[in-house]
Amino acid sequence: MNENWSQENKQIQKLLSKEATFDEAVRKLLEFRNELFQQIKAQSLYIRKYGKKDFIKIQARLHEKYDFQKVQEILGQDYKEALRILEENGKR
């Protein structure tokens, strides 16, 4: 994964190790899971509609335009918004 997730993971590990912060760690993990599900859903819908080859081209285009962390942030939004962004970038 990327540097951002590495730092998050370290923080979550610290939170999990203490009873007083355990609930906060679980909340952070659930937030992260939800972001991943949004990305997976948008990407799956895009691949179903346009195909895997087109999706790979869009990913490359997004990574040329933004760094990895920004792409993850963009696609971690609401899946409908992420799908719209993927489709918008596919039109070029």
How would you sum up this structure in a few lines?
With 92 residues, this protein is mostly helical. Helix content is 84%, strand content 0%. It has one domain.
What does this structure look like?
This protein is mostly helical and 92 residues long. The chain has one domain (3-90). 84% of the residues lie in helices and 0% in strands. It contains five helices and no strands. The chain has helices spanning 3-16, 22-50, 52-65, 68-75, 79-90. The longest helix is centred in the middle third of the chain and has 29 residues, at 22-50. The relative contact order is 0.13. The model has no long low-confidence stretch (mean pLDDT 85).
